[in-house]
Design goal:
- The protein is of the alpha/beta class.
- The protein has ten helices and seven strands.
């Protein structure tokens, strides 16, 4: 039972730390790699490895130098009490800075202070957390010595990251909502498609590429039926591919974005997209999803579903609301 409890505690702690690292990375407080999500782990692999290494180092270090569990407990109390105090302080500050913010849950027992409704439980919690934190500093060596050292190391990392990202120490950094925070894309792959969805996807890819100074690979997949040879003459499809790629190139020139036209023949569009993304080292695939698929059993088309399951890189899917495409056409 003890082993199971420790396993559950370790798993929960690593999960919480990695989610926190994801948020810090997205807001420019840790390196951007910590804010980039992973398809398999759903959090940053760098965060998982870092948390595991730091945890192992702490346990081994304490075991070598003293084997004192109380030291680890006091170090934990240093951090968790500061976190509690910061949470209570944030609640109080928000009552002054954003009094009209929608609050599904509102801390009760408000007192009127300087024109704002300040929750009394948050004030009491802040005072108690700070008091117990000071008590921990006085009575526990881990909190008194290792805690401040840990805090200083964190501030150093924060300062280095802000300097490297060319952000001010107190500047607010808002992560990009449509993409994984901190994602660095240098090569985007956008499969071409006739109609409004295809035009919107090309425009989306070019806008993202311009923002990140990236290149765009415009891919037109000519699907060849099984009853025909791959090199069979398909005049209409070839002409459509030429026109579509040329239009993408012109749109890229208007926005000073390099668009590389790519034309391939394949039996499966999804397999061709995945293969080209791997061949060209794409960082992002931009796809569109028509609303008609959401009226059926599958949310995405078979092509989009295949790419999502097999792509070697990040995939951005724009699902258009019902009625938008009909109005555009």
């Amino acid at each position: 039972m003890g082993a199971l409890v420790l396993f559950a505690a370790a798993t929960t702690s690593i999960s919480g730390c990695t989610r926190l690292a994801h948020s810090l990375g997205g807001h420019g407080q840790l390196p951007r790699s910590f804010g980039r999500l992973n398809r398999r782990t759903l959090v940053s692999p760098q965060a998982i490895v870092s948390v595991a290494v730091v945890s192992i180092a702490l346990v081994v270090g304490v075991g070598v130098f003293g084997d004192d569990v109380a030291f680890l407990a006091s170090l934990y109390s240093f951090g968790v009490l500061l976190a509690f105090a910061a949470a209570q302080l944030a609640v109080i500050r928000l009552r002054f800075s954003e009094p009209e913010l929608p609050r599904p849950f509102r801390v009760p027992f408000d007192v009127r202070l300087a024109g704002a409704d300040v929750p009394l439980p948050a004030v009491v919690g802040l005072v108690l957390a700070v008091a117990v934190w000071i008590l921990a500093l006085v009575t526990h060596e881990g909190a008194r010595y290792a805690g401040p050292v840990w805090l200083v190391l964190g501030l150093v990392v924060y300062g280095v990251v802000r300097r490297r990202e060319q952000h001010g120490l107190l500047e607010e950094v808002t992560p990009v909502e449509t993409l994984p925070p901190g994602a660095e894309f240098r090569r985007l792959l956008v499969p071409m498609k006739l109609g409004v969805i295809g035009e919107e996807m090309v425009a989306t890819a070019i806008a993202l590429a311009k923002e990140r100074q990236a290149a765009v690979d415009a891919l037109y997949v000519i699907r060849v039926p099984l009853e025909q040879e791959l090199d069979a003459e398909l005049r209409e499809q070839e002409e459509a591919a030429t026109a579509s790629l040329a239009e993408a190139g012109l749109l890229g020139e208007e926005h000073d974005v390099v668009v590389n036209p790519i034309r391939v023949r394949a039996r499966s569009i999804g397999e061709a997209i995945v293969a080209e993304a791997a061949l060209r080292g794409s960082d992002l695939i931009v796809l569109g999803s028509a609303p008609r698929w959401r009226r059926q059993s599958a949310f995405f088309s078979p092509t989009v579903d295949y790419v999502l399951r097999n792509a070697p890189c990040e995939v951005l899917v724009v699902a258009f609301p019902q009625g938008v495409l009909e109005g555009a056409s």
